[in-house]
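Could you help me review a protein record that somebody else here produced? What it holds is a sequence and that sequence's fold in token form. I have pasted the whole thing underneath without changing anything:
=====
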Amino acid sequence: MSEPNVSGPEPRRHGLSVRTLRELERASGRLAAASVAAMEERLPWFGRMPAEQRASVLLITQAGAAGFVSWLRDSKEALQLSTEAFRGAPEELSRSISLRQTVGLVRLAIEVFEDELPGLAADERERSELIEGILRYGREIAFAAANSYAAAAEARGAWDARLEALVVDGIVRGDAEESVLSRASALGWDPAASATVLVGNPPSDDPPTVVFEVRSRAARIGRAVLLSVQGARLVVVLSGPDGDGEALGKMTVAFGEGPVVAGPTVATLAEAHRSAGDAMSGLRAVVGWPGAPRPARSGDLLPERVLTGDAEAERLLVEQIARPLEDAGPALLRTVEAYLESGGVLEVCARALFVHPNTVRYRLRRAAELTGRHAADPRDAHVLRTGLTVGRLARARGLW
């Protein structure tokens, strides 16, 4: 039986001889070092990076060079080594280097590879094979880097979403101010900005759609927002002053069908739990006012909130309606009560009080200045009547 011929041509993979592949493998460390040296020379910002981060880049580059040889040996294992290197890079590195800068590093490393590797080829055919392989591999490495950054961004987005939900939940539950403020600051919220809480139905059952809709509306009016979908309820914390309510009206479009209630605008996020509490109470009570605007202010729903047992609404009615009218004197209080009892007929009220109708008009204007409610308006008349009733009940119970 004849001996096998061991002096024949070496086997090839991807058109390269085994000897050339070994040379490439031995040169991987030198290529990585040359690539990092070129980065330090041609990229000023790279030289300013801390030493440990430059060392991390060197390790990734070495993994990329070794991955190139593995890719040449077996295309099925294409970029596993290099992809793992990107995935395992220190978190500080991805924060320090942008995707644009990373692509620049990859491009520079590929240029070094193009200069150095063809010289290791055994012949011109292998040289062409290497050049083509470097170009293809460089493209795949760039895609691997982009995928790595995209995965990191997705993870950060998921973490930010969870943190945002914790902030909004803390505001709704009235958690300690310090924890809410620190988490909100991590999300970029200005601690000095005023805040208004809006609650209503989400526009979709798909959370990403809800987030996109709310953030798009907020961006159009130049406001920062925090939001959370809590079951069938959407809670939005809107930054900035309320003004004439125009911003609130534009944000209402981001909610689904049904009522939307806005709490009072508070000076800082530390007080947002008050706005949230009033908004939640208003949302429970708004069904009692069929003609409520959208959004309805929680302060305009005080009569309905009192009927649901809201102690804060009762206190506000006493402070805003009953106490100012009583402190203004018996004549003003009797005029408002008589006007309400007369069904809003000015002449009937004037006869009951034995005064001129102009006197009634003057007193009603004075009452409107004190309470912000004019008895001639049907809705304001309902608030005034409820406020006076609540005031009498509170006094009878010794609460006032």
